[in-house]
Specification:
Length: 428
């Protein structure tokens, strides 16, 4: 796609605004398509510019395109001044394809594992009940009828009382406000007590259960902090999850050096009886052209195998939005800082994935520095989740601007965006 002229982008934006100001539902559909195509054009233009950023004309073009950063927020303001009815329909149109009304909560930074590709800094700290309450209240102020609360960490099951408290509060508020709330929880699966499982089932959670494959694949990438072999416990817990009838996806993370193992892992996990399997390529590290090609070949083979054998390949569903590196979900850290999500992928490259080794204090410093760059507000002062909505284009510009001088991080970001774009046909 050629680099678009700013005047053409402005025309696209004007057209979307005109359509959004009409209340007729068909106007909304058209506006949605219009905004989606504007986002795509901006993203592609920015990618091309980033590749040639040393030329002065490119820098001018960049300044022109940067004018469109967070344009949806400006659009929302203009529409409200024009007294357009700002209801869920209009908001859905404005933010569909950009960010859902979803809040990630880092309920703890503790974890029993030390996965080689993990960028989340570990320390024994959990969210306070006050911060969790403020996070839930913020999400429930969303202008949309359907919202999602996603518990994350660290290992969220290590802070289960807090998960329970937040979920119950969210349920109560949702009922009063006539909203629907869905719960997600990403877990390493090592801490699944009977009572917790019951609560998860009763409250209709969807679990994202991490299991990279057979014991060798799992333990080589995901060592326990205590150095112990936990694989049989993991298998037992996966089986209990199946028996309890909890809805879950199994997620297997693939490093560049293991790109050739995707199909084998997929078949292994399906052989254990799992029916929804997601393959996550490791982000935050560089994938060579050969590794990318191998990954795509293996993913395509896994998709074919899944279709034939009645297993859901989650990457091929609309739930997967590529490039994942640019999906900046609203995230609440333990200490009450709200930030936009891609930060968790943008620490220094962990040693096992091919980057230079880093010491733990350096990693912590790096995490906090990144979080500061992408921080939005303290949760107690945040008013509306919609205000922090961002498109993939917004996140792309923020990332590349933040790391303009840190060439190694910028290289990783561009590489991962490129890979995500190549994976898109799978999720189309
Ligand atoms: S289980 Fe999750 S939080 Fe813990 S080290 Fe692994 S990826 Fe990181």
């Amino acid at each position: 796609m050629p680099l678009m002229r700013a005047s053409i982008l402005s025309e696209m934006l004007d057209r979307a605004e005109e359509l959004l100001a009409r209340s007729a539902p068909e106007g909304c559909d058209e506006a949605s398509a219009c905004l989606a195509s504007l986002d795509e054009t901006l993203l592609e233009s920015w990618r091309l510019l980033e590749r040639s950023m040393t030329r002065p004309s490119s820098r001018r073009a960049q300044a022109e395109i940067e004018r469109f950063l967070f344009y949806r927020r400006g659009l929302l303001k203009r529409l409200s001044r024009r007294k357009a009815a700002i209801g869920p329909g209009l908001l859905g149109t404005l933010y569909s394809g950009s960010s859902r009304s979803r809040l990630f909560m880092f309920v703890t930074h503790s974890c029993q594992l030390r996965c080689s590709y993990c960028h989340v800094v570990k320390y024994p700290g959990s969210m306070s009940p006050e911060v969790a309450d403020a996070g839930v209240d913020l999400l429930m102020r969303s202008l949309r009828r359907e919202v999602e609360l996603h518990f994350f960490g660290g290992e969220p099951m290590l802070a289960f009382p807090l998960v329970r408290r937040a979920a119950l509060r969210a349920r109560g508020l949702a009922k009063r406000a006539n909203k629907k709330v869905r719960f997600w929880l990403t877990t390493n699966g090592l801490e699944l007590g009977d009572e917790a499982l019951r609560f998860i089932k009763e409250n209709d959670f969807t679990l994202e259960f991490s299991c990279d494959g057979a014991d060798e694949a799992q333990l080589s990438q995901r060592a326990s902090a205590a150095g112990s072999d936990y694989y049989s416990r993991l298998r037992r817990n996966l089986a209990r999850l199946q028996e309890a009838g909890v809805r879950y996806n199994v997620i297997s993370v693939v490093l560049p050096k293991n790109a050739g193992s995707v199909l084998e892992r997929f078949r292994f996990l399906a052989g254990l009886g799992h029916r929804r399997i997601q393959i996550n390529y490791a982000v935050g590290c560089v994938w060579t052209q050969e590794e990318q090609a191998e990954l795509l070949r293996q993913m395509a083979a896994a998709a074919r195998w899944a279709r034939k054998n009645g297993v859901e390949f989650v990457n091929a569903s609309s739930a997967r939005r590529e490039p994942v590196f640019l999906n900046g979900d609203l995230t609440l850290d333990c200490d009450g800082t709200l930030f936009r999500g891609p930060i968790i992928f943008n620490g220094e490259t962990p040693p096992e994935t091919g980057g230079a080794p880093i010491s733990k204090p350096a990693a912590e410093g790096s995490y906090l520095r990144m979080r500061d760059i992408f921080s939005l507000a303290r949760v107690e002062t945040a008013v509306l989740p919609e205000y922090y909505g961002a498109t993939q284009f917004d996140n792309f510009v923020s990332l590349t601007r933040a790391y303009r001088r840190r060439l190694s991080v910028r290289r990783v970001a561009l590489n991962n965006v490129e890979l995500g774009l190549r994976c898109r046909p799978m999720s189309a």
